């Protein structure tokens, strides 16, 4: 299925969870937060939250700022 | 000789957070993470701001800010910088909290709220800022809110539940210092009326150490700055200067300045002066 991650469209396995996506992106152990369709998905739910066709995913981290 | 340290209990208190340094320092715009690390250390700050941004998906194995920050030493204050709508700022605040919760950093309960009006001035959008403040307070956030130096707006934000109101000295990154001391003074009067411990922070516009001292002398509780250190020719010297200015300004405020007078008053006795004539 097609999803959008940080503005870029990509392929994901059907039934993939947020946790699966983070593993694929090698971000599983990184300090990141994830939104799916503008809704925060807390880390405890990454393993349960299944992605769906057309989902818009944002993965963010902390960077330098004032 | 009495102790010249500020009196015991003079810490900066915002919500559940207590700091002995009254400087909050940003982590952006340094020439390198190492330079940032050293400048933060020298500044004496215990609280640093960070921004929330998309993770790089191609170079995710590259350097991360958090590899260079001792998260046991610093309380992290996540900002909503770059947001131009209340909804976006609320989303960013939630995302920042989510990351800090994972890191077990005490900063997970608060946010530096910025909702900007336009890219040229980076001035706050007052209506959207108020709206986002109300929403985040309702969600249990300790909200430190960036605003202009308008005293009426400052009061509205406090009434909406902001834990600290943070008027700008001048536009973000402009280095113009505290442009309107009288507006900051009125903000202080309004915000601290019957609530002297309410924390007021000057956020933005600091260009040099004297700007920090000026703000602190007015009686604000702290100063938040970033570019003033990060873009100084020698960030380490400037970090030290900012640390000293913050303490200097605080002590000057606590000491209580003399009133300004139009005419001179001699410091030396006027009697017993030798002079020509009888």
Distance between the termini of chain B: 45 Å
Instruction: Round the Cα radius of gyration of chain A to an integer and report it.
Output: 11 Å
Span of the ends, CA to CA of chain A: 39 Å
Q: Overall 3D geometry of chain B?
A: globular
Global Rg of chain B: 21 Å
Low-confidence spans of chain B: pLDDT under 50, at least 5 residues? none
Helix content of chain B: 25-40%
Structure, explained:
The complex is a heterodimer of chains A (66) and B (278). Chain A is 11% helix and 36% strand. Chain A is mainly beta and 66 residues long. Chain A has a 5-stranded mixed sheet with strand order 2-1-5-3-4, with no helix packed on it. The longest helix of chain A has 7 residues, at 18-24. Chain A is globular. Chain A starts with a strand and ends with a strand. In chain B, helix 1 runs parallel beside helix 8 (235-255), helix 2 packs across helix 3 and helix 4 (151-159) runs parallel beside helix 5. With 278 residues, chain B is of the alpha/beta class. In chain B, helix 4 (151-159) links the parallel strand 7 (142-147) and strand 8 (164-167). Chain B has helices spanning 33-43, 86-103, 126-138, 151-159, 181-191, 209-218, 227-230, 235-255, and strands at 12-14, 17-19, 23-26, 47-54, 75-78, 110-113, 142-147, 164-167, 201-203, 222-225. In chain B, the strands form 3 sheets. In chain B, strands 5-4-3-10-9 form a 5-stranded parallel sheet. A 3-stranded parallel sheet of chain B has the order 6-7-8. Chain B has a two-stranded antiparallel sheet with strand order 1-2. The longest helix of chain B has 21 residues, at 235-255. Chains A and B meet through strand 5 of A and strand 4 and helix 2 of B.
List the helices and strands and how they pair.
The complex is a heterodimer of chains A (66) and B (278).
Chain A: E1 2-5, E2 8-11, H1 18-24, E3 33-36, E4 39-41, E5 56-64
Chain B: E1 12-14, E2 17-19, E3 23-26, H1 33-43, E4 47-54, E5 75-78, H2 86-103, E6 110-113, H3 126-138, E7 142-147, H4 151-159, E8 164-167, H5 181-191, E9 201-203, H6 209-218, E10 222-225, H7 227-230, H8 235-255
Parallel strand pairs in B: 3-4, 3-10, 4-5, 6-7, 7-8, 9-10
Antiparallel strand pairs in B: 1-2
């Amino acid at each position: 299925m097609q999803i959008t991650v940080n503005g870029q469209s990509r392929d994901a396995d059907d039934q993939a969870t947020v946790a699966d996506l983070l593993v694929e992106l090698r971000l599983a152990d990184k300090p990141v937060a994830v939104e799916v369709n503008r809704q925060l998905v807390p880390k405890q739910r990454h393993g349960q939250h299944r992605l769906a066709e057309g989902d818009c995913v944002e993965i963010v981290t902390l960077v330098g700022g004032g | 000789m009495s102790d010249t340290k500020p009196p015991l209990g003079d810490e900066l208190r915002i919500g559940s957070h207590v700091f002995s340094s009254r400087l909050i320092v940003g982590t952006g715009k340094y020439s390198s993470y190492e330079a940032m690390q050293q400048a933060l250390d020298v500044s004496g700050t215990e609280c640093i701001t960070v921004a929330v941004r998309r993770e790089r998906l191609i170079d995710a194995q590259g350097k991360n800010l958090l590899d260079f920050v001792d998260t046991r030493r610093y309380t992290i204050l996540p900002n909503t910088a770059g947001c131009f709508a209340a909804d976006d700022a609320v989303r960013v605040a939630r995302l920042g909290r989510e990351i800090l919760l994972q890191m077990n950093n005490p900063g997970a309960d608060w946010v530096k709220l910025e909702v900007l009006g336009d890219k040229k001035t980076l001035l706050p959008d007052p209506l959207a800022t108020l709206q986002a403040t109300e929403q985040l307070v309702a969600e249990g956030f300790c909200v430190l809110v960036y605003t202009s130096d308008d005293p009426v707006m400052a009061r509205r934000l406090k009434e909406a539940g902001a834990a600290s109101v943070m008027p700008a000295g001048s536009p973000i990154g402009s280095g113009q210092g505290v442009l309107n001391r009288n507006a900051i003074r009125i903000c202080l009067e309004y915000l601290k009326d019957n609530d002297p411990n309410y924390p007021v922070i000057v956020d933005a516009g600091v260009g040099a150490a004297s700007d920090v001292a000026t703000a602190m002398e007015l009686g604000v509780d702290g100063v938040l700055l970033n570019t003033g250190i990060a873009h100084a020719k020698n960030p380490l010297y400037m970090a030290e200067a900012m640390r000293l200015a913050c303490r200097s300004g605080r002590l000057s405020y606590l000491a209580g300045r003399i009133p300004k007078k139009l005419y001179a008053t001699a410091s030396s006795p006027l009697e017993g002066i030798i002079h020509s004539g009888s």
